[in-house]
Design a protein that fits this description.
Helices cover 35% and strands 14% of the residues. It is built from 14 helices and eleven strands. The structure holds glutamine (GLN). The site of glutamine has 13 residues, from loops. It comes from Sphingomonas ginsenosidivorax.
Length: 454
């Protein structure tokens, strides 16, 4: 009840698009009844969580923060949300996000930006970006509106908003969590994961969310490890790699200092620090911004005014006119930009020059990581090259916005588990995140290093 009241009192943050108090309260009642009956409680019994609006939720409006999906009410439940309900959790509501998960500041939402609960300590009162695309999730957790929220991460959308708001979030290995019922952005990159106050909460939530699902062809047929039980901050014998290529030109000194602090903390916990090289890092961002739009342009072809959401049917119009009018009206500018880039790089004549090249780079980046694992067990880097920027600061400059993803996209291209944990504050008193990247399927190693830093 306290969380339900907080959510409804915090409308100014614009974190929730839909509130579903009855769902959360029903889960709490079920937990109470189970406790009264002396039953063993489920791992998330009665825990109220926020759901990113990219997850289809049966009977509850789902828009991906796009006008084109207004009026769409799914008749089915995504696998990950169903897994959470099966573990006893309840839903406080659907969380705002960048439209179709495209963005790094939550400003591409068709329903207004989310406002970070953080402010600069020097009195500069400019509202700050909560990060993106899971900006509603980061804000809802950071503002204590819910103890945990779901996020999705295609190129950093769990980790960067977690870093901007001083919380933790983990993107598991590609295939750990089912993508079924999660609205697709770039299918070969999309992964689902939890955002929460600390590493333990992330471990508990991820344990409930993950698992094989026959309905997702890329789902991994593996048991879910007991991540919470396996938590340990003892780093003895662990080799932590510091990739030298992540020291990018113009990196602010305080990001360098943050990184050094993280290195010292892990050393103090017993880890051995080794320098490693990921030579193709500088090509990751351009490759990502070809591959992700290419897949998006294909995935988003389904929004045609026939099957879901809005339909614009000008008088006397034919089918093509209806498609054009619906898509022109329904998609926001960033989504249109991605569709145009995506169709361009996939078109005959440009396919080899852009898409094929980007796919080759993706392979080289994955190989860089494979070679690094010969020398280390996890990698430590900053999560983002800056603290939260002001709303509006980068919204007219897509390239500046894309550059914010420089540290998060390489591990996405390689499908690796990666987490952001709070690492300290910048000179404005704003949170900064440290990123831990792990070997395929080694979420435990990532969580444990996160615990040692936390
Ligand atoms: N900011 C990146 C993009 O706009 C990543 C988004 C995401 O991970 N969903 O594509």
């Amino acid at each position: 009840e306290a969380f339900v009241a907080k959510v409804s009192a915090a409308k100014a943050l614009n974190a929730f698009l839909v509130e579903t108090p009855e769902h959360a309260l029903a889960a709490a009642d079920a937990a109470d009844a189970a406790r009264a009956a002396g039953e063993t409680l489920k791992p998330l019994a009665g825990v109220p969580i926020g759901m990113k609006d990219l997850f289809c939720t049966k009977g509850v409006a789902t828009t991906a923060a796009s006008h084109i999906l207004e009026g769409f009410t799914p008749t089915y439940e995504s696998t990950v949300s169903q897994n959470l309900w099966d573990a006893g959790a309840g839903m406080l509501g659907k969380l705002n996000m960048d439209q179709f998960a495209m963005g790094s500041s939550n400003e591409t939402s068709a329903f207004g930006n989310v406002i970070s609960p953080w402010r600069r300590s020097d009195g500069g009162n400019a509202p700050l970006a909560p990060g993106g695309s899971s900006g509603g999730s980061s804000t809802a957790v950071a503002a204590r509106l819910c103890p945990g929220a779901t996020g999705t991460d295609t190129g950093g959308s769990i980790r960067q908003p977690a870093a901007f708001t001083g919380i933790s979030g983990i993107k598991p290995t590609y295939g750990r969590c089912s993508r079924w019922g999660t609205i697709a952005f770039a299918s070969s990159l999309d992964q689902v994961g939890p955002m929460a106050h600390d590493v333990r909460d992330c471990a508990i939530m991820l344990g409930a969310m993950a698992g094989f699902d026959a309905k997702d062809a890329t789902s991994l047929k593996l048991d879910v490890p007991a991540w919470e039980a396996g938590l340990s901050s003892d780093m003895k014998g662990l080799r932590v790699g510091i990739p030298k290529e992540y020291r990018v030109d113009g990196m602010p000194e305080e990001i360098e200092a943050l990184w050094q602090q993280g290195i010292d903390w892990l050393k103090d916990a017993g880890a051995e620090i080794v320098e490693v090289s990921l030579p193709h890092t500088k090509y990751a961002l351009p490759a990502y911004y070809i591959i992700a739009p290419a897949e998006a342009s294909s995935n988003l072809a389904r929004y045609d005014g026939v099957r879901y959401g809005i339909r614009d049917l000008p008088a006397g119009a034919g089918l093509q006119d209806m498609y054009a009018a619906t898509r022109a009206d329904g998609f926001g500018p960033e989504v249109k930009r991605r569709i145009m880039i995506g169709t361009y790089v996939l078109s005959a004549g440009f396919y080899d020059a852009y898409y094929t090249q980007a796919q080759k780079i993706r392979t080289l980046i994955a190989r860089d990581f494979e070679q690094a694992w010969a020398k280390c067990d996890v990698l430590l880097t900053p999560t983002a090259p800056s603290a939260a920027f002001a709303l509006g600061e980068k919204s007219d400059d897509p390239i500046a916005m894309y550059l914010n993803d420089v540290f998060t996209v390489p591990s996405s291209l390689a499908g690796l588990p990666a987490m952001s944990v709070p690492g300290g504050l910048d000179h404005h008193g704003l949170p900064l995140g440290l990123q831990i990247i792990g070997k395929p399927l080694d979420e435990q190693g990532v969580l444990n290093a996160g615990l040692a830093i936390e």
